[in-house]
Specification:
This is Holin. The chain is an all-alpha fold and 75 residues long. The protein contains three helices and no strands. The chain has a domain of 33 residues.
């Protein structure tokens, strides 16, 4: 049994050490992750831009600043 495990270990090490490197292999999971990250970045940038544009526009509007629903209710 010891000889079999030694033989399997030697074969495993030989296959690992003699394996050729894989150059730029991208599976579908990697591509999906990259697309999800890009979509998240675009959505984050658009939302940030929308909020900042609303702040800038509110500086130039006449009248009191808009209040949120939380501020307008009475206790």
């Amino acid at each position: 049994m010891k000889r079999l495990s030694d033989l399997l270990f030697a074969l495993g090490m030989a296959s690992v050490l003699t394996a050729a490197p894989a150059y730029a292999y991208l599976d579908s999971g990697t591509i999906s992750l990259a697309l999800q990250m890009a979509t998240g970045v675009v959505a984050g940038v658009l939302l940030f831009g929308k909020v900042q544009l609303a702040r800038i526009v509110s500086l130039f509007r006449r009248g009191p600043p808009p209040t949120s629903a939380r501020d307008s209710h009475e206790d």
